[in-house]
Write a structure and sequence with these properties.
This protein has helices at about 20-45, 55-80, 85-105, 110-140, 145-175, 175-195, 215-225, 230-260, 265-290, 295-310, 320-350, 355-365, 370-385, 385-395, 400-415. By secondary structure, the chain is mainly alpha-helical. α5 (about 145-175) runs antiparallel to α6 (about 175-195) and α7 packs across α12.
């Protein structure tokens, strides 16, 4: 009797899949350019345009406002369209918007309202792009490799973000912030080219006869909020983003405005965050395997909040700044487990026809909290002080774990 040996052939790494690799290249290049914008837009506002803390907070609010205003209908619209075309159009639109800033600076007509308009336009296009992007991913890789695919994407994002702010700070110092935005505009063009080369068919979804936009939006809302775990993940991420943006909207106001630090030094904190995120993305699979998915995500949110709060006393223009950067980076090391595992879980449990609407629902709540946080941060920074805004946001981050922790406790009691 012949016994067949078990098949020990390992599936190829996700980056060896041609279509996923093209998606990964496009996303990585655009993220590298976006790392420059993270510094350039607020530094243009704070420096040449002399923005106050409140005006700087308004800029950050505009950069996320599209998710709040259009997040829900965007998901239903994306589910009716070819996702890849939506992504390519989003890349081309973002390149065009960013190109207006160096042109206006060259003509000496750059103003804060234009920055606000560009920031809002970027947020609208990013809302559509990201919803289509997360809906496309499960079509390019198998379900059992979704975590690996998300890890690959997050790892490359954090690698580019690690180098981006530091290089971007030097670039801004050399050629000024508006001109540095040309790099970001070019990166979106490269991303559009990479996405256009994906070979997997991108059929137009079949529309259900008589389906109304309002009903489709409601279906996505029901799916998220009727599921206990999805609801908890969404609320945890929303609280984290709300409180995190309160502080983040004022961080560059503190560093570049009050402390007078150079663009290069301002970029180092973002580099530290990205390096920490890279390490965290590489540890995510191990953390989930050891602690279990829900416990690992709870620990991730708790530890990251504590580390970010611990960093705040050390933001000064001396040796303490190095320690603040280290603690800030370690906070992102801890947080990546929640960030990656929660996205993979949502993609795994959501039926394909609902992916766009479910992603849009989550983004509406999670990213929609960010302009509210930025507005609150701007008001606190203007009337209570920049450091007060940072402490308020840091303390609030510790509350983010509560919805997820309640589900974890309930599950342990039921088991």
């Amino acid at each position: 009797m012949t016994t067949l040996a078990p098949d020990r052939t390992r599936p190829p790494h996700v980056l060896l899949l041609p279509d996923f690799r093209r998606l990964w290249i496009g996303d990585t290049v655009s993220q590298a350019g976006a790392a420059v914008t993270v510094l350039a837009l607020p530094l243009v506002a704070i420096g040449p345009l002399g923005a106050s803390p409140f005006e700087a907070g308004l800029l950050v609010m505009c950069e996320y406002l599209g998710f709040l205003l259009l997040g829900l209908p965007a998901g239903a619209w994306v589910d009716r369209m070819r996702g890849r075309r939506v992504m390519i159009a989003g890349d081309l639109g973002r390149a065009a918007l960013l190109a207006t800033l160096p042109a206006a600076a060259w003509l000496d007509v750059l103003t804060l309202p234009q920055l606000y308009a560009v920031g809002f336009g970027l947020s609208v296009l990013t809302a559509f792009f990201d919803i289509a992007y997360q809906s496309q991913l499960p079509r390019l890789v198998d379900a059992d490799r979704l975590v690996a695919a998300n890890v690959a994407l997050e790892s490359s994002r954090t690698v580019t973000a690690a180098a981006g702010p530091g290089v971007g700070g030097a670039l801004i110092a050399a050629v000024t912030a508006p001109v540095a935005l040309v790099v970001d505009a070019a990166s979106f063009l490269v991303s559009a080219v990479a996405l256009s080369r994906i070979r997997r068919p991108d059929p137009k979804p079949e529309r259900v006869p008589g389906a109304r936009l309002r009903d489709e939006i409601a279906e996505g809302l029901r799916f998220v909020f009727r599921d206990r775990l999805l609801r908890a993940l969404t609320l945890t991420a929303a609280i984290s983003n709300l409180c995190g943006t309160i502080g983040a909207s004022m961080l560059l106001v503190l560093l570049a405005g009050e402390l007078g630090m150079s663009p290069f030094l301002c970029g180092l904190v973002f580099t530290a965050e990205a390096l920490g995120g890279l390490l965290g993305s590489l540890l995510t699979t191990r953390a989930v395997a050891r602690l279990g998915e829900t416990r690992a995500m709870c620990a991730s949110v708790l530890v990251s909040g504590a580390l970010w709060l611990a960093a705040l006393p050390f933001f000064h223009a001396d040796w303490r700044y190095a320690l603040a950067c280290v603690l800030q980076g370690l906070g992102w090391t801890a947080f990546m487990t929640f960030k990656i595992a929660s996205v993979a879980l949502r993609q795994r449990v959501t039926p394909a026809p609902l992916l766009g609407r479910v992603t849009a629902t989550v983004r509406f709540v999670v990213w929609g909290a960010m302009p509210l946080g930025a507005l609150a941060g701007g008001l606190l920074g203007e009337y209570a002080g920049v450091r007060t805004a940072l402490w308020t946001g840091g303390a609030g981050e510790l509350l983010a774990v509560v919805p997820l922790l309640l589900v974890a406790v309930r599950r342990s009691r039921e088991s």
